[in-house]
Each structure stands twice: as C-alpha cells, then as structure tokens.
From TrEMBL:
Transmembrane segments: none annotated. It comes from Trinickia terrae. InterPro entries: YbaK/aa-tRNA-synt-asso_dom_sf, YbaK/aa-tRNA-synth-assoc-dom. One of its GO terms (molecular function) is aminoacyl-tRNA deacylase activity. Residues 23-142 form the YbaK/aminoacyl-tRNA synthetase-associated domain. This is YbaK/EbsC family protein. SUPFAM superfamilies: YbaK/ProRS associated domain (SSF55826). It holds the Pfam family tRNA_edit. CDD domains: YbaK_like.
Length: 162
C-alpha cells in the first residue's frame, strides 16, 4: 500500500510541497525515526482519543507522550485512547496498524497540534502505511495543519533524545 488517498487529496488541494522518504517496515513511530535515520523530534505522530462525543486526534513529536490531563483541560473532554478496531473504520484508506497521517481534519476529526512541532525546521509524518514518510518544511506543514488547534499537551518521554 502507499500514501492514503485522503492525504494525497489534502496535499494536492493545499498545493503542498513535499517529498516521500521510504524506510524499512516499522511498527512504531520511534522505530520509524530510527529506521529512516531522522530526528524523533521532527517525526509527527498521531494519537487518537475518544469519548461519548466522538474522536479527537493529537499530533505531537514521536519522542513525546500526551499529558492527558493537559488535553482534558484544553478540550474540556474526558478522553481515552481510541480502540484499534475503531481506527480501521475511521482510516479505511490507511494500511492496518499504520499510524494515520496528522491531517485528521480531512477525516472530519477535531485535531490538536502540540506546539513543540511548530518550532521544528521541517517535519516528517506517516503517509498511511508502514514504509513511507512525507517530509516537508515547517511552513508547508503548518499550512497543511491550518485547521488544527495549537496547544501544549506533550512531554518528552524519559530517555528520549532529540
């Protein structure tokens, strides 16, 4: 499988400039950063949450974890991690088990972008499969994510280096 059709449409509609970086098959964002030889702070991962009101996406560096209390405070919602089985239905054009691309607003989902990603010179993110990353300059990434709300909800994980 290759890039998700939703992501392709989003990149085309925004006139985004980007490149595709292939990497060995990986199962996690930390593994992807290592396999692709890129800084983990520049690899955006998407974490999906749910509550009785629906789904919400949080986008942050692969070296960070979500501080759920901060996200609850920002959203006013008592969110829990979304179930893997639900993700299959939400992201039908993505490979099973792959991290969804960060443009979750294109999937009709409220999206929050951690402020730490706005300070990077460039950003990488999963294309909807296990072997391709999209790479773009920060200004292109921020334009792509223009419908996401910016907030501080991430913290660097113990033992994670830039």
């Amino acid at each position: 499988m290759s890039m998700s059709a939703t992501l392709q449409d989003c990149l085309r509609n925004k006139g985004s400039r980007y490149e595709i970086l292939r990497h060995p098959y990986s199962h996690s964002s930390i593994e992807t950063a290592a396999a692709a030889h890129i800084p983990g702070d520049r690899l955006a991962k998407t974490v999906l949450f749910e509550d009785e009101h629906g789904y919400l996406a949080a986008v942050l560096p692969s070296t960070y974890a979500v501080r759920l209390s901060e996200l609850w405070s920002k959203t006013g919602r008592r969110l829990a991690l979304a179930k893997e089985v639900d993700l299959r239905e939400l992201f039908k054009d993505c490979e099973y088990g792959a991290l969804p691309p960060p443009v979750c607003t294109a999937y009709g989902m409220q999206t929050y972008l951690d402020e730490s990603l706005t300070h990077q010179p460039d950003v990488y993110f999963e294309a909807g499969d296990h072997e391709e990353l999209v790479h773009m300059d920060a200004d292109q990434f921020l334009a792509l994510m223009d419908q996401a709300e910016h907030a501080r909800f991430g913290r660097r994980m113990q033992g994670m280096s830039v």
